[in-house]
Amino acid sequence: xxxxxxxxxxxxxxxxxxxxxxxxxxxxxxxxxxxxxxxxxxxxxxxxxxxxxxxxxxxxxxxxxxxxxxxxxxxxxxxxxxxxxxxxxxxxxxxxxxxxxxxxxxxxxxxxxxxxxxxxxxxxxxxxxxxxxxxxxxxxxxxxxxxxxxxxxxxxxxxxxxxxxxxxxxxxxxxxxxxxxxxxxxxxxxxxxxxxxxxxxxxxxxxxxxxxxxxxxxxxxxxxxxxxxxxxxxxxxxxxxxxxxxxxxxxxxxxxxxxxxxxxxxxxxxxxxxxxxxxxxxxxxxxxxxxxxxxxxxxxxxxxxxxxxxxxxxxxxxxxxxxxxxxxxxxxx
Length: 333
What we know:
6 helices; 333 residues; 15 strands; globular; Phosphatase 2c, domain 1; Heat Shock Protein 90; 5-stranded antiparallel β-sheet
């Protein structure tokens, strides 16, 4: 199970001081020493300044403590500003689009342990920053991923959740959306994922039947399970409910994945089967809850696949988040 990103809106300059204060409170749990904490403050000041200075329609910051692999803080900046044609040029000190000294992007990159950004003129910019107190161990991974998960505005708990793990030489990708939102939805999603951990050896349709029995006392959830076998280059999958899952080939062809009607914990079909789909080396898997509109097209973001997968997740969230429910989107390749 994962913790959601904390969303901080910056519609205009008056929100800047409050946002910085909230970020500093969260960062207290990141284990940063005094030097790195002061550098984080500089990074946050630059990001918030850029958002209110350049984003004509405001922006948003998503924050999350890094605890599962390494220790630190993750910051995703999303703006609706004018964007830029050459983001690499903006990394050079003295380059600015607004007549300022132009130290912002270069400073952010220098002080970050991980940095990536994507921008389009007329669209805006998404930026990823990670600052570590303990860097993650280097691991050989068969899949790379980026996930954004945000609770509905005004809610402390997120009803969406996910698991990305390796068991029996397979990569397991599990997305869950508890009915509604708030604490009860979060409890239902968590119960489904906890039940999943008890049945990882089964194939997906059998897993869903077992989970269905285990979570009957919750309000229920929709759920999608994918098991990736790297040796066979194949995905076994099964889903119940309106989680969206699409595989996009290197040529841009999209293949939707079937899902059964129902609610795990309440009512599922008496007969369900797991499906198989081939996975090519350069394929892309995008899964999301109904907190996002599903009428997206990654062709809208030329060149974004050269960047961290989290930036594509951020772009999809930026353009397609409904704002009326919890939202989760994961991008895997």
